[in-house]
Amino acid sequence: MPAGMIGGFVSLLQSLHGFFRFAEMKERVLKCQEQAVDALEIEKRQQIHATFQKKVCEIFDALIGQGLERKEAVKRTGQALREQNHPWANRDSVLHVLRAAGRLRRKEVKPN
After folding, report:
1. Pick from 98, 50, 53, 51: which is nearest to 71 by CA?
2. Residue 2's CB: how many other CB atoms inside 10 A?
3. Backbone angles phi, psi at 78, to 5 degrees
4. pLDDT tens-digit profile of 20-60?
5. Is residue 50 located within the same domain as residue 97?
């Protein structure tokens, strides 16, 4: 091979290597997606999330029923979940669930 063509040939080989590497990664992603789209697995995950939401709301409502302020009730809800070693026992998860459930909305005082 002439010396002037070696650079172009190496560039071609590098491009082909990148192309086939991309195709391999794309194939792996598609296989993972096929495995993740199992309807039973999705339903199971949704049920676990719904159970978590229900537990958070029950604990929060019980604490509010005891007369605690919302901020303190959120704090103690997180503490109760941490005591149970729940994997989602953090302030952000608790706040997200409570906001989505409408538990943190201020009650409007209607004028008479």
Report:
1. 98
2. 5
3. -60, -40
4. 999 999 998 888 877 766 777 778 889 999 999 999 999 99
5. yes
**Within this chain, do residues 17 and 71 fall inside the same structural domain, yes or no?**
no
Q: Residue 64 domain-assigned?
A: yes
Q: How far is CA 78 from CA 11, 32, 60, 70, in A?
A: 57, 34, 9, 12
Q: What is the pTM of this model?
A: 0.60
- Look at the block and give the residue holding tokens 């604990």: 59
Lowest mean pLDDT among 77-81, 88-92, 95-99: 88-92
Alpha helix segments (H runs only) across the chain: 6-36, 39-65, 70-83, 91-100
Domain that residue 73 falls in: 39-105
